[in-house]
Amino acid sequence: MKIRSLLWMAWGVSVFAGAADLPVAAVTRSPAAGGYVADASVQAVRQSVVASQVQGRVLELAVKAGDRVRAGQVLARIDDRELGAAEASSQAAIAEAQASLAKAEFDLRRNQSLAKQNFVSPSAVEQTDAQVKALRARVDALRAGASAASVSRSHALVTAPYDGVVAATHVETGDMAAPGKPIATLFQPGALRAVAFLPESQLTAVREGLAKGIAPEIEIGGKLLVGTRTSVLPAADPNTRTTEVRVDLPVDAQGTPGQFARARFALGETQRLAIPQAAVIRRSELNAVYVKTADGRFQQRQVRLGESLGGGRVEVLAGLKQGEQVALEPVKAGIAAAAK
Average pLDDT for residues 147-151, to the nearest whole number? Predict the structure, then answer.
């Protein structure tokens, strides 16, 4: 029994001696570029919601989401029978007015001839002339109405305004279309941007970083891209107290409208609490380090980490204080801590 106790004491002394020899690193503040990270979404620079301009039943939806379309290609066809009847009615009204105008012009010429022979009074000529002018104005108005009816009928064919991709369709065959009701959403691929909404507390610092020419970094699908142009909208949303910031992406950027992204805006250089990456033990979603205590032992402590700062160091957001020492070989430090 005494021999076993002596062996345990000897093993504990050796572990303690080993723990004392483990390399450590001090928690220090390191200069690093400050930044603000905001959630963003990918948008197409050119995106349109194509809506109906007339009322009628949708007879045909000619596209589906994901289709590529050319400018002028038919997206949907709306029943135009009522519009056609209105156009025909306008043409008939024009013909009637033109016939009345022709008769009035004949009467005017006749009255002018008779007035020269004093068979009709000048007032009769004036009355006929006024009638002719009124009928000419009516014909012009009816022609304008017929032109509007023709244009309205042409709107029964809903077409693509430019070459693009159908992002979504909003109606089905048989639905009732109405002026302003969306038919399809189109976007032009190849020109994308990331849109983020920044709080008022960060906007001034972000503006200063942009003024220095530091382009925001955008992370999309695990790939990091550098924005080519940044626009800060002049007005804030009164409900959320945020301001929209648009960052244009490189032409070779891979993404789709609506995709999640992260935008990082530079805020200048700051001093951040940091430790070596080698000191961190990562277990599932938890991060921990072994801190050297005043008596030379190691104690496990959970920490919250921030960004990688380069040079093999990582930012510490919570859990450590400046000047504390952490083990650079956390596995051995853990064995030593468990032995005590």
Answer: 86
